[in-house]
Amino acid sequence: MSSKIRIGVVGAGAGGLCVARHFLADAHRYEVVVFEQSGQVGGTWVYNEQVNSDDNSVCVHSSMYANVRTNLPKQVMAYPDFPFEDDLPSFLGHGDVLHYLQRYSEHHGLERHIRFNTRVMRVKPRLAHHVDRAAIRTGSESASLPSYPEGRDDSNAPPLPGAEPGTATAAAESAQCPVGPQWTVISGATDSRSDATSDCSTFDALFVCNGHYTRHIAPSVPGLCHFRGEVIHSHNYRHPEVFADKVVVVVGTGASGQDISMDVASQARRVLVAASRQKWLQSPLPDHVEMRHRISHVNQRGQVIFTDGTADVVDAILWCTGFAYSFPFLDASCGVTITGTRCVRPLYKHVVNAVHPSMFFIGIPYIILPFPVMDKQVVYSKAVLDARHKLPTTTDMLLWQEEDLEHRAAKLNYPLHYAHVLSDRQWDYASDLSQHAGADDLPPHYKAIYNHVSAGRKLQLTTYRREGFRLRDDAQVFDIVES
Q1: How far is it, in rounded angstroms, from Cα 302 to Cα 312?
Q2: I need a labelling partner for 435 at 20 to 30 A (CA). Which of 30, 122, 192, 328 fits?
Q3: Peptide bond connecting 328 to the previous residue in cis, omega within 30 degrees of 0
Q4: Alpha helices, DSSP H, located in 273-423
Q5: Rounded CA separation 9/207 (Å)
Q6: Which of 97, 113, 83, 92 is CA-nearest to residue 12?
Q7: First-last CA distance in the chain
Q8: How many other CB atoms are there within 10 angstroms of residue 110's CB atom?
């Protein structure tokens, strides 16, 4: 009989490593297993020259390109208790960030708890309760909601179909977990597609940390079949040299659109950045980079027609149009739905599965400081599992998300696909998680530097990274230095 609460983690990127670090710091109470489909830690920060699929026919996870530099400085990218190395510049390459995550893993002794080259094929709660997914999508109070009496024991639940008898590992008994249910995880070797080689494990709590920069979104453009040039998504972009002396349309002005358009501009003859008028870049741009309206269609001669009626003959279209959340390993009984591409339900505080509150999602929000906010999400989740923070009722947690979505629509004029955008709200969000967990807030320099850099990026896209930052001894104040 195990005296520890068993924690399963999907993914050994920044979120999954953070989960392992905090729970293994309390190793007398928790046992942690991390499932990682690749052979190393780092997640999206592991650069891969290959696109689409790798040598094992597995979808390439990372969207990193060769020349990427972070658009946030290291002083606000780091986990709160683990700074980047002093000799690094403020704005980093992907290799610097990967090395940081490797050091973080090594420092906290995480790798021996990671099952590398292991793909999670299916996750299912260990209960026979039906979850009304349609009611969850609409926030209906008539949803069929499970309850978990204190001291619940479902250790005698049968294994999932396809799992060999006797293959469940550490399955039967554990220390009591304050929330339920337990979880069955079926996993197998990444290079194997056969369920015959699968392993079945049971956990008291499950953390989903598989990232959201892999399944890309591309708009439907009438007449695109007439286009004679190259069409790719930023997920598959690696080097600007492939666009040397070409005319390229970069679609989108989010973080990837801004940075990739400038990277492409280092080689292309012309770069046309297409976006709705209210999303045009305000920064001065190189002479051969132009803002354009959205693409309307491609005509039969292969010309790209923009919504203002202008037309251009171009060599390539590069979609910088974002990514969709995807959890293909979650069984329907997990109760998790994705409305459109960017709204995950039913999530309380963007973290807790409201109908099965022993499932936690780390890293769902965006337009944030990723590592620091993920750290707060993990600390909050651990407070729940430590029984230091009691969650509201299932109905109240469902209501929280619906009220949050209503506020976004009515007060912020956000469309549904902005369901997990935080931006300026990230500070109150992180503070709220910290307060419930009994933890310290983020130090004030995080917000101050973030706001300074955001303003600089907006007005001086091509030069804002020339600034560097140096924290003073108390880490409450920063100085601007030459990068």
Answers
A1: 9
A2: 30
A3: no
A4: 370-385, 394-410
A5: 5
A6: 113
A7: 55
A8: 22
Contact 204, 6 (CB under 8 A): yes
- Where does 205-337 have alpha helices with state H? 255-265
Amino acid at 24: L
**Any idea of the CA torsion for 136, 348, 423, 100, to the nearest 10 degrees?**
-120
Predicted confidence at residue 57, as pLDDT, reads 55
CA distances from 305 to 10, 311, 316, 341, 401 (A): 43, 4, 14, 27, 40
Check: CB of residue 397 under 8 Å from CB of residue 357: yes
Torsions phi, psi of 296, nearest 5? -90, -50
Is the CB of residue 59 less than 8 Å from the CB of residue 32? no
- Give, as one character, the DSSP assignment of residue 140: -
Burial (0-12, 13-18, 19+ Cβ within 10 Å), 473 = exposed
For residue 312, give Cα distances in angstroms to 107, 151, 298, 315: 53, 67, 10, 10
| Number of CB atoms found within 10 A of residue 283's CB | 16
How far apart are alpha carbons 89 and 217 in whole angstroms? 33
Task: Read off the amino acid at residue 388.
Answer: R
Token pair recorded at residue 287 = 């002479």
CB atoms near residue 305 (< 10 Å): 18
Classify strands 114-115 and 30-35 as parallel, antiparallel or unpaired.
parallel
Q: Give the pLDDT confidence score for residue 3 in this predicted structure.
A: 84
> Among 392, 394, 414, which Cα is nearest to 404's?
414
**pLDDT the model gives residue 472:** 81
Tokens of 25: 């710091």
Rounded Cα distance between 186 and 61, Å, is 20
388/383 Cα distance (integer angstroms): 5
Other beta carbons within 10 Å of 103? 13
User: Block means of pLDDT (10 residues each) for the chain, length 483 residues?
Assistant: 88 98 97 96 95 68 95 96 96 98 98 97 80 48 45 36 36 69 96 72 98 91 97 96 98 97 98 97 97 98 97 98 96 97 97 98 98 98 98 98 98 96 98 98 94 96 95 74 74
Among candidate residues 361, 54, 4, the one with its CA nearest the CA of residue 206: 361
pLDDT of residue 410: 97
For residues 436 and 361, is the Cβ–Cβ distance under 8 A? Answer: no
